[in-house]
Design goal:
Elements lengths: L3 E5 L2 H18 L4 E4 L3 H16 L8 E4 L1 E4 L9 H13 L6 E2 L8 H14 L5 E4 L21 E3 L3 H11 L8 E4 L2 H5 L3 E6 L5 H9 L17 E6 L8
Parallel strand pairs: 1-10, 2-3, 2-6, 3-5, 6-9, 9-10
Antiparallel strand pairs: 4-8, 7-8
Helix pairs in contact: 1-2, 2-3
């Protein structure tokens, strides 16, 4: 199957294209359920969406936003909490109603229950129309690390070790305090009607090549996207350097 790969000339073009994927989903479906991702890859594109909305307001009253994952056992006030980043970067500037901003809590005594509630809330709204997905340097999507079964559903996954180390340093979290990430499972992600996988930067080039040109394997969770019928791989020139 021929993959849908879009390669932007530079980072600025990449951010504009990614932003317009979100805006287009909102304009074409006034009740769209849109999944986002957080991190350095998405910050600028969220800013562009918010800026365009500020200049040219459009109806977002029926739009639902959520993030594909959320950190666990940390306060929502932590600057790295997905809720906080999405709220500050896009949900707040667009004025998304709280009931249309679906996120699991970061603190709970029963994360299995929270995972089920999160998944059911999305299903109750008809499922995911657009899922924007980042790409980890080890091939993870959401917080589904290498080795995660493709049939996995919403669950609490371990963090990438390097990311966990940074979070612990930023939050002064001791080693005996368990951290993780509540994430849509790979099966849930694959049920999205449209997926846009976004990756930019030379540091992503090697894993991009394995994702789109290597075998479909749980060793590289993102490789399963080769099998999705409506997935766009949006890359900048640096991330695409090994596949052009």
């Amino acid at each position: 199957m021929k993959l849908n790969i879009t390669i932007a000339k530079n980072e600025e073009e990449f951010d504009r294209i990614a932003a317009w994927r979100i805006i287009t989903a909102m304009l074409t479906n006034p009740k769209a359920v849109i999944g986002l991702s957080t991190g350095q890859t998405t910050k600028n594109m969220h800013a562009i969406v918010s800026d365009i909305y500020r200049q040219y307001p459009f109806d977002i009253s029926g739009i639902t936003l959520f993030n594909v994952d959320e950190l666990t056992n940390l306060p929502r006030e932590y600057k790295g909490a997905c809720y906080t980043m999405i709220k500050d970067q896009i949900a707040g500037p667009l004025g998304i109603k709280e009931e249309n901003f679906i996120m699991p809590p970061t603190l709970s005594d029963d994360f299995a229950r929270e995972a089920a509630i999160f998944q059911q809330a999305l299903e109750d709204r008809g499922g995911i129309d657009l899922q924007m997905l980042g790409l980890g340097t080890n091939g993870h999507i959401g917080i589904n690390q290498p080795g995660t079964p493709f049939e996995s559903e919403t669950w609490v996954s371990p963090m990438d070790p390097d990311f966990e180390k940074r979070v612990r340093e930023e939050t002064n979290t001791p080693p005996d305090h368990e951290l993780g990430g509540l994430t849509l499972g790979i099966k849930n992600i694959m049920h999205s009607r449209k997926i846009v996988l976004i990756a930019k930067g030379e540091h992503k080039a090697a894993i991009v090549r394995q994702m789109v040109a290597g075998p479909v394997t749980t060793d590289i969770p993102a490789s399963v996207l080769q099998l999705h019928p409506n997935c766009e791989f949006l890359l900048d020139a640096d991330a695409a350097k090994y596949i052009v």
